[in-house]
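Hi Y.,

Following your request, here is the sequence exactly as I used it, all 99 residues.
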Amino acid sequence: MSSSHHLPQEKKRYKDSFNQLRDLKKEIEHLHMLLEQSRTRLQKDFEQWMAVMTRQQQQQQQQQQEGGGATRSAAPGASEASPAASVVMQSPLSALSRR
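Below is the corresponding structure, written out as tokens. Let me know if you'd prefer a different format.
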């Protein structure tokens, strides 16, 4: 095969590959944008959930102080779960759905 006949085929192959890569780049950029939006939404949702959990914890502490600090029945030597543990145990979605 002569090089003059081979060159147009190589140019076409190059252009096809280039166009395919350009399309992939657009798709990757779009997916990157969606990822950033999701990351932002996740951060915002977490912050809202944390605010709800903090508010609930403060209300519970305030109610306990107002009620004379009613004691819970616990086995001797058993430690109560920390307030942070109760925050972690609740689902962010359930907390937001109660709003």
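The chain is about 80% helix and 0% strand.

Thanks again,
Q.
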